[in-house]
Amino acid sequence: MNAAAKTLEPGDVSAAKDWLRALQRTAPIGRNPGRILPLVVAELAARYGDAPALVSEQESFSFHSLAERMNQYSRWALQQGLRKGDVVALLMPNRPEYVAAWLGISAVGGVVALLNTNLAGRSLGHCIDAVRPRHLIVAAEHAQQVIGAQLSDTDSKVWIHGTTAAGFSRIDNLLDDISSEDLCSAERPALSIDDIALYIYTSGTTGLPKAANVSHGRILQWANWFAGMLDIQSDDRIYNCLPMYHSIGGVLVPGAALVSGASVAIRESFSAGRFWDDVIRWDCTMVQYIGEFCRYLLNSREKPNERNHRIRVACGNGLSADVWKGFSQRFHVPRIVEFYASTEGGLSLFNAEGEPGAIGRVPAYLAHRYSPVLVQFDPETGEPIRDRNGFCVPCEIDEPGEALARLRADSSQAGSRFEGYTDPAASEKKLLRNVFLPGDAWVRTGDLMRRDRRGFFFFVDRVGETFRWKGENVATTEVAQAVASLPGVLHAVVYGVKVGAAEGRAGMAAIESESSLELDALRRHLAGCLPPYARPLFVRLLPRCEVTGTLKYSKSELMRQGFNPELSSDAIYFDNPETQTLQPVDRALFDRIQAGQIRL
Prior knowledge:
alpha/beta, GMP Synthetase, Chain A, domain 3, seven-stranded mixed beta sheet
């Protein structure tokens, strides 16, 4: 070991220590199948007591009070006759109560579906119907969204958290009257790390959002692996403004902090103007990011206190190389750890070495367990390329290809196990068979990556029908259906386009209508049925939609032309956030957008 260490760079030695800590922290999970995170939280409450666990402007929980609130949710679930596997949907903004709710309900066998708070109407109704919950817990500020959701299953009982809404029961008042004492063994059903704890929605690579299965084992694996890689200690505090309905903001970050005896400062949403004020006020030592808000911070005006913090590490995904160094230097962030992970499972990567722009590198001694393979991909067919024998073709060094993860069923490696969706057919579509050998099976990530000579992986793009914008995956099928539901629209083609140096791709809709399209009506319509990040930033009016030989919309030429008015004679409009109108795109406006002179 000492001889090998002499040939390693200092960053490699440090990374090796990170991987070792992560392996040590996750190794006991498979050996203790009945020890799930809610039980761990109860143990931590006895150890850390009144030390802060989750803090925010709404409420704060110590380890002890978090365990008590978790127990109240557990007893509420038992009082409602909730059985193992029954579903409770949760629609609530970021706050400590959010974590207490899913911990408590999952502790007694319930499965909690984490609903996107931006959704409304048909989109929200689809997500609720997909899991058929017995109960919905809804924060008062989101009550109207549930009332307006188009639900096919009306048997779910709605509980309001906060001010009373007509016809609904107040769950917070009821919880306050329930015992917060630890549950006895007779109250707890037999659960294991293989049981499902959460449904977290992801668009995958095609279609409407799907509910991904997340087991107790993967929650523990996420939490302990993350804590080990970042060396989280009990005196750390993580600043988290990512949506808690996502796996990172709602599960991984609070889980990693809790299992380490550390705490999380929770903000409802990202604010560039308040970011550093919050970090300093809550004395945070770590921040969780998505790359786009790092760009916002770097492009914002200098604040006098932006370096007066104790941040030792920033961790997240989507931070491009051009922002990486500037962000680190301007804000005096000594370490950045980029990672890649999939909510459905199958693959995770960590860039512990701090290589700007890379999403990870797997040490040679662990490559057989964790490293993905990249295979050549045909963007026209949306499928990996096959050789004359019908097998996939591995990529060369620096050649982009779709990343595939080995299909695993081993409980001891729960973090990289593919657990799929509630819909078995959707899970099967995520698998690729006969990849290198007859009968083998691999998990499709839906992401194009490249691998350099040193073994670092770099994200290239999404494949299929999904693109990423503002840190969110946007399903083109869902957006196209929303556009097409406006009277007068005959066809709608939705795709992502590059916009200057912005991260990801912005949405663009090419529309064929039966008569002159009323742009203001279109804008109002989309604002009423799509979350902000999913609304097309650009609209192109087509005289006729082209289709392929298989009757699919032809997107490749539309995507190539993007919103450049000089590449098409069609009318193109920009949803200008400054004017709140759909504005015609001419060359001058195109140049301003590309130069980043208009904040998107």
